[in-house]
Write the structure tokens for this entry.
Amino acid sequence: MKNEVFNQIANTIVEGDPSATVEGVRQALEMGWEPLDIINQGLVVGMNIISEQYSNGECFLPNLVIAARCMERSMQVLEPELKKRQQEVKSAGRVVIGTVQGDIHEIGKSLVGTMLAVNGFQVYDLGVNVSPEAFIAKIRETGAQLLGMSALLTTTMTVQREVIRQLEAEGMRDHIRVMVGGAPVTASWADEIGADGYAEDAVGAVGLAQRLMGLGG
């Protein structure tokens, strides 16, 4: 019975039905199942399936966005229960993300943040048009181990380099791993500016973040 409920929750994520996912989560709670089990054996399983399908070209970006919404809405139901039981989802790491200064593109960066969050990362999303100083201040404040910078314009790519230079000048570069992405960004650009890695999409960003944190993926 337990496995059936968890499988159904996973299936609703794959099918892209947030209301059904939330209903399944509520039913699982009413049956007395532990919130952490619902997350790990239901929600995460579904997200892993949809991520693999996306990577294999079997589904597309809208499917990924809807699946992330299923997870987000379910976590809103589960978080009060986790607190009530004094439980918490083990953090995969702290990551600061944002779209660099001069660039106001939001969607790709936000999806990366959501996907990182549903994979256990504590995400500090600074939004768009983020200055190097703002990135550095947030890293200091949070003690983040990862920085993710998005640039969707060729004219703003150079800000990624500037942030890395400022991290070096502040003596912080050895303490943080830097990921870059965005339409004009390439792996060779990441190498050129001294970033630790490049991802072309949200699923790739999760895998990269996990590898940089020594978690596999």
